[in-house]
């Protein structure tokens, strides 16, 4: 049995009364666990291919490798195969299992309810022996849809509320509890949980920050604006769209002229209303795109879309993690879960995924590996431009004598302008503020010139008493990248084979100045990197490449492409 298997654990959902609201979290073997992960849509749009063991293992192992501990099987998809749940058991991934009812009002005639009861009975009996399954949820967004009148049901609210209870309470909940009383049950997601039950299963505000879980999407406001994101108990959906890489797009068409967002090819594949308009907005907040007629526009748009997706989900997730164990004056906080939308794709298209249809990690997935790490550095900028630094730990033991190092860099050099340290002890399962600076005054004093927000940025590291890293490095940009006084770096790479069989390689990246969003790709050689999409502040940095299949070093060298934000092909 793998050491990470959750077999035999006791799983409880705990709800305590507070002055304002209740808590919502999972407790495993008496330990509160912060849930970090994603929502998974069908492994394949063709159910028979959803049982492909290699593909299932790749997706779930990718989630595990990105420090996730939970996946939500979304109610708008399918019940996954036995292969899926067995793999989750073995990898120690926890599964939030929706029943397949989503974003709709359903009939409640006796034949339909009998069919539902049979379906639920079958699925619960099939899945209940999997220790990975930790919660049942009857529907996706249907409580919110009814209360907020998504489908014009307001005029017959009492009827639809009665139907809701017949389907999700009298039928699904009763059937689940008749078969399995070992797991908690939710009638919907988002929901206020036991408080929704108290209100007759349709809460006045199913998206309340004080109860249960929430889903959050806002594509119009700057995704890097920290105040945008809710301070909630548990955030089970949130995210942004991006395009898959040009390399992936060209597996669906052999005509590069199809890669423009106004071309019918990509317009047809955008199934989210106003999707490109919203991507345009998010990109525009951070970057200056080339003219649409420029030969560089398509590549720049694709690359920038992945950056803003990754940075926006990073910003939101770090905020959600920062509120672990903390509560504000009105009772918001105590956040204990962040599951972004979404893990995977069912075809080559723009979507919210962090892994594209061709099994390539997007920039978001590499970012997730960092922002879901057991220990992270997280920053909060106040309305008065005070930059607060937090250390968040999911570890079950304290960390003594840690050193947070704050370094100021100018964009034109890998030599730092200023550095200072703070010593601290980090408690188990905590989020602690350990430093604050008046950002503008601080940067002005550190020789960042008359326009310090455009000339400098802040970089953080966290180390133990032996100077070993405890968390991924982090950074804070005082202004939008389009306003910063950047200099294009000159990047060089070299490759060294580590093992004897061609399954592990070290790649050395060298730069002369700060390099933003350094991105490595391998044309026609599948695999993943130990890190990618990173900010390089040192002249030399190494990453490891793990190909899916054995490859010769010469073939890898020929396939390797390194780019960065200021690569000429994006300008």
TrEMBL record:
GO biological process assignments: carbohydrate metabolic process; glycoprotein catabolic process
Query: Span of the secretion signal?
Result: none
Q: What are the residue boundaries of the Mannosidase Ig/CBM-like domain, all occurrences included?
A: 386-483
Keyword terms of this UniProt record: Disulfide bond, Glycosidase, Hydrolase, Signal
Q: Which residues form the Glycoside hydrolase family 2 catalytic domain?
A: 103-245
Q: What is its EC number?
A: 3.2.1.25
Identify the Pfam families for this entry: Glyco_hydro_2_C, Ig_mannosidase, Mannosidase_ig
EC category: hydrolase
Question: GO molecular function terms here?
Answer: beta-mannosidase activity
Which reaction equations make up its catalytic activity? Hydrolysis of terminal, non-reducing beta-D-mannose residues in beta-D-mannosides
Domain Beta-mannosidase Ig-fold span(s) in chain numbering: 489-567
The UniProt entry, under InterPro entries, shows:
Beta-gal/glucu_dom_sf, Beta-mannosidase_GH2, Beta-mannosidase_Ig, GH, Glyco_hydro_2_cat, Ig-like_fold, Mannosidase_ig
Entry's family note: Belongs to the glycosyl hydrolase 2 family.
This protein's name: beta-mannosidase
Q: Which organism is it from?
A: Photinus pyralis (Common eastern firefly)
- Write the lineage as a comma-separated list: Eukaryota, Metazoa, Ecdysozoa, Arthropoda, Hexapoda
